[in-house]
Amino acid sequence: MILENETFLHKRYQIKENLGQGGMGSVYRAIDQNLSVDVAVKENLFTTDEYARQFRLEAVILANIRHPNLPRVSDHFVIAGEGQYIVMDFIEGEDLRQRMERVGILPEDEVILIGAAICDALSYLHTRTPPILHRDIKPGNVKISPDGHIFLVDFGLAKVYQGNQATTTGARAMTPGYSPPEQYGMARTDTRTDIYSLGATLYAALTSVIPEDGLARAMDNAQLTPLRKRNPEVSRHLAAAIAKAMEVDPGDRFQSAEDFKAALLNSKSMTQQLLGTYTIAPPPSEDEKKSDPLKANALTHSLPPEEYPFVSPRKKQFERDRRIRRILLWILLGTLVMGFLGTMLFSPNSMPASARKFLPFLPYEQSTGTPVGVDFVTEIIPEEATATATIMPTQTQTIIPLVVQGGSPTPIGADFLQIAYASTRTGVAQIYLTDLLSDKAIAITNMPGGACQPFWSPDGSRLVFISPCAIKKDTYQGSGLYIINADGTGLKQLPAAPGGGDFEPAWSPDGKTVAFTSLRDGYMQIYSYELDGGNIRRLVKTATNKPARQPSWSPNGRQIVYAYQRVTTYELWQMSSLGSNEKQLFTSGDVLSNQYPVWSPDGNYILFSQRRQTDFTFPNLFSIKVGVVNSAVKIDLRVLSVEDVDYSPGGSWIAYESGGDRGYHVLYSTPSGANQARITEDVTFDDFDPAWRPVQQIKN
């Protein structure tokens, strides 16, 4: 929960402003009441033993740092039941990203001085015993104070480097364009990792363009565009120095920050003799911004977001159209609300009794139903409970209070915190991996036709997915199944049907079989593929020309639950892993359609999405208890829609997509809806098809 302004922490620090929010907590500007100075307060809300140790180690690292280009830590404390806090210098001014947005391409001399100052800070960090790596150098983490002094800030990903052993203080994360290939897991990071990131930062400052991603370059999917091609005014010596710092192979880079600094200063005659502290032109003061608006406003050709370097024109047009639709919808809703309020205030007796009973401040004679003000879920109770596969003609609804068992939600650190999902952030869907503690997305695929519907192998080392898949759709004619390692290597295509049309893969718990939906019969049916023998077999045999899709394995691998359209709506059915003993789980009539089933890790429950078939409604989340006939219960997560749910390995959390025609977003929360958060906050692209990474075989 974000702290409100004027809140007091530790009876000393008065919160004044939220400076930013990440996966582990927020950073605030506060006033130290004892010293009457501004400070930055960084919080860690995850208080499990592992993260507590990491956070304490970060405090110890920073508390011992004394360098003019680095902030100092002045306090560290714990508030029981809330979190841990580090207090450090608050650096006023603007960061390098804001400076690039304000002025565009930076002058060459200024970039050299920024690079030299950060090299000084890195030399200090890298020569500590043991060495300290920053691992997240980018424009947003370089600050320029009001007197033009340059600081390297944000040590959330700092690491103590000890030869073959490394102690991390914070989550491993990558920023595409600024992170070298080894930070994606291709090799161990060392001091040369920071040199690459600084080179990429200076490249962006000189061009207003984020350089090509290091992982894509290492996999020969991209080449670094020469700096002088984007800015011919840059000297050859400076361009060569930055290119050397950004070499894919760490052995080809500068081997120390001092070497990089020397190359930067020697690239121009006027900077060769500069020694000591380096400063640049300070950011404009508030008075200057008021007198000259051009100094306050970012340029129209500002740098794109650091994490997402490209959005296609088609996607931008789609977003503009979506904003127009959203505005029209709000106008319509406003008109309806005004009409309702007018009726309620001036003609309450004309309102139906069914509506008036929810407005207790209006007089009415009859009162029925559940009291207003309680949270509730909907339990569907058919008029006649039966285990046979019959369609029930009618049903009733009983409203029951939603009771969350247990005194408090499970701490977020209790489960492995990586989710794979599909995202259209580059214009075409690709699969990304996000560590929830860092909020940084790592691209796993780079398929020309796009990729989506990832599903993890049970040991968490590989993913099965489908391609082509440019955007989210209901079916994918022409798609095929692929397997790839978690680090983006080892791409392999599974045997495809003539013309394609294989999608919705699900890996069996023993890792030997992939079940999937296929159009090879001309309509959707569920098939299985044996990874060792290569045998492909059709599983559903109930009827011909009746779609069956979305297989989900039971935790023991003996059963598969799936969606089956026997008449007009999709129903949930269950069969053995060999495709026998098909039976319907429960009945919901010819109006409600049930899809996207997923088994809980303990095998006791099945979650699924339900929507009306006859008219448009957003899907809601329901749960049924395995073995109990007709036990469907609605779970209210208080979001627009819930679809394609996936459990975390321990069952304490669920990830799901929500949105519909307003765009798709991946969220996660406890199964009861507590501690809800979004994977990304950007609304210019769609995130969908979440898959929580298994924890069993994950290695540090």
How would you characterize this protein structure?
It is a single chain. α3 packs antiparallel against α4. By secondary structure, the chain is of the alpha+beta class. The chain contains 12 helices and 38 strands. The protein folds into 4 domains: 8-89, Phosphorylase Kinase, domain 1; 94-307, Transferase(Phosphotransferase) domain 1 (Transferase(Phosphotransferase), domain 1, Orthogonal Bundle), CATH 1.10.510.10; 310-364; 417-692, TolB, C-terminal domain (Neuraminidase, 6 Propeller), CATH 2.120.10.30. The model is unreliable at 164-172, 298-316 and 363-414 (pLDDT under 50). The two termini are 29 Å apart. A 6-stranded antiparallel β-sheet has the order 1-2-3-4-6-5, covered by helices on one side. Strands 17-16-15-38 form a 4-stranded antiparallel β-sheet, with no helix packed on it. A 4-stranded antiparallel β-sheet has the order 18-19-20-21, with no helix packed on it. The radius of gyration is 28 Å and the shape is globular.
Strand order in space, largest sheet: 1-2-3-4-6-5
How far apart lie the N and C ends? 29 Å
> What is the number of strand segments?
38
Q: What profile does the largest beta sheet have?
A: 6 strands, antiparallel
Can you identify the CATH superfamily of the largest domain?
TolB, C-terminal domain
- What structural category do the secondary elements indicate? alpha+beta
